[in-house]
Please model this.
Amino acid sequence: MKKRILLPDDERITQWYNVMPDIPNGILPPLNPANNEPLTPDVMAQIFPMGLLEQEMSVDRQIDIPEEVLDIWSIWRPSPLIRANFLEQKLGTKARIYYKYEGVSPSGSHKTNSAVAQAYYNKREGVKRLATETGAGQWGSALSFATHKFGLECKVYMVRVSFDQKPYRKSMINTYGATIVASPSPDTPTGREYLERDPNSPGSLGIAISEALEDASSREDTKYALGSVLNHVCIHQSVIGLEAKKQLAMVGEKADVVIGCCGGGSNFAGLAATFVPDKLNGQDIRLIGVEPASCPSLTKGIYAYDFGDVSARTPLLYMYTLGHDFMPPGIHAGGLRYHGMSPIISALLREKIIEARSAHQLECFDAAVLFAQTEGIIPAPESSHAIRAAIDEAMREPDKPQTILFNLSGHGLLDLASYDKFFAGALQDFAYPEEAVEEAKKTLPKV
Ligand SMILES: *Cc1c(COP(=O)(O)O)cnc(C)c1O
Model:
């Protein structure tokens, strides 16, 4: 048995896979909220470079990965595929469990894959500076690293609560040479407005997105970057699945079940979408996205046009959503707190090509601790949702010799405070109330 399956350099992936042309009945375009008309590239060009906008609307299945991106990726890519045999033994299952480990990237998660690509396309078009928001800090640190590699400046608006709770993310962002402020900040009109109302405002992802967007639109040299949800981000992440398929083939395996955790959907799309052509060709394979029970956009949300941010400033995306003013419960420590879901993942669920399920945070931390004690790696709380589902699948029919593949999207070494809370019994489960779905319906934009 091979524990660690490494893809040789001459087998490395040089083209991304874009699932959009393969989705039956396609996906509906984003709308301009001013007139409910499909968005034209020139409107979006104020905040994103054309190279990324072309990918956003691309009908090409294969897209060349620029040499400059491959070059930086070579620091950690190809990432290893690892057989979780110690976990299998502990569980007593005949299932063979493999995980693709994205925690080997410099900033510790899959987000670096897209950050490098986004920095590259901005640099190519003469952009000098990027503005972005970050919740838990993973995207902010990934983009700080990537922008520095291309000689761009970067400003990160980090949600105040996380800024205070995760000081080492701030240290990382500073180390990579980016500028970081807690949001709400005194640096933008929206930030000042919220600070005036409440100088101790904990902030929210919505406020931080608004601040980064204002920053980008107020300066000629600056554009905006988003770390999940959008089509171009999902395309960049396809390298995860393309590598994993080759690595499985190297040990004579084919996945029966493919699992990923879902926040905005990019790491799950990156892994699972590459198996969609096989599934459409009749292969018996299940693709399972796992989200937190406290933020269940795929399993309890509404499929409709909605804003991407709390302040209702972004284009309208057709997606499963809990309503753009959804506030995640404070007790939730498990990450994955976005109100919507990537339009690609949403359309794949509508077509029943993927399945969705939710998991509670305590059972996810249980799975994370079991994983850490058997395989050694302490997972990001987000990734623990995938581990939970992988274990459940392996134990549903423990005598079935199936092959399970899941994405370990990041390590949890900067999330140890959440583990401390879990061990101290300070975390609780929270089921999303049914009434909230009805409430959310009222907030959806009329299209
Ligand atoms: C951001 C993040 C996620 C969730 O984002 P997706 O776009 O759904 O992939 C999951 N895992 C880790 C480690 C993250 O940093």
Observations:
- Residues 72 and 79 are 13 Å apart (CA to CA).
- Residues 109, 111, 138, 228, 261-267, 336, 380, 382-383, 409-410 surround pyridoxal-5'-phosphate (CB under 6 Å).
